[in-house]
Amino acid sequence: MEFSDSGRRLGWLGAAAWTAVSISLVLIFFVARTAQSAMGGELQRIFYFHVPAAWVAYLAFAIVFMSSIAYLRTNDRRWDILANSSAELGVVFLALVLITGPIWAHPVWGTWWQWDARLTSTLVTWLTYVGYLFIRNLTTDRRRGGRLAAVVGIIGLVNIPIVHFSVYWWRTLHPTGPTPANPTANSGLGTPELAAFFTSLAAFTLLFAWLLAMRARLGRLEDRADELEMGVVSGRRREAVVRARQVVTT
Amino acid sequence: MSNLGWLFVAVMIVWLAIGLYLVTLSARQRKLETRIGQLSNADDKT
């Protein structure tokens, strides 16, 4: 198969993402020092996956929000495809947050789960976006399903500040942790740990960008295949074939 | 299980999930490309 410029860019993005992932793994396991046993010792290294996955989920849902507004304003299917792709990835990464968190909490807190503000609001956010993905299938009309989902995608973003600030607004078991504005606050992180953390953050962001580009391409491909089938009915098949081949070769 | 064991489980889950997502994405893409190929070929014959 021949690749166009966008296909090559996707290849480079993937290579950059996996290079960053490899570097981050070396930093996480061989450079970052082991945390105090009260924080889980070796287990605290989960933090280098848990926090970047949460950041990527925030980013994904922010993209859903912006693309949903753009879709409702313009009715351009490309925005809907971007929103749907980003929501799917956000659900995957937030699921990883919800799985890795309890694995750390079990030996450190002595329990897998606490119905505290951070954990509960994260679960509610995850369920909101699972609902977003399901709502599309309530109707066979793709555009109508997209518009319904867009409303959920816009309202759903309300969850994100609640999740993020819950540890400051309410008393919770969840650590507040470092922020980019104040990376060493209450964290006990030194230079090696910060290097591992921010490299992992960059790696997850690149991985997300790569997966999002591939997922959006799949969405365009689905549209073209449908168009091709519809073309048989409407007699506009030739046009649909040309458009489908353009997507396949990118 | 030791903390190191749980760390291993968590890391495996993260990369297996991402790997599984990639495999699913790739399978869906291949299926669609085949479908588009068949529809395009049918068009060429008509």
Structure notes:
The complex is a heterodimer of chains A (250) and B (46). By secondary structure, chain A is an all-alpha fold. Chain A has helices at 5-31, 47-74, 77-109, 117-135, 142-156, 159-169, 191-234, 237-248. Chain A has 8 helices and no strands. The radius of gyration of chain A is 21 Å and the shape is globular. The relative contact order of chain A is 0.16. With 46 residues, chain B is mainly α. Helices cover 93% and strands 0% of the residues of chain B. Chain B has 1 helix and no strands. The longest helix of chain B has 43 residues, at 3-45. Chain B is rod-shaped, with a radius of gyration of 20 Å. Chains A and B meet through helix 3, helix 7 and helix 8 of A and helix 1 of B.
Task: Please summarize what this structure is.
Chain A has helices at residues 5-31, 47-74, 77-109, 117-135, 142-156, 159-169, 191-234, 237-248. By secondary structure, chain A is mostly helical. The longest helix of chain A has 44 residues, at 191-234.
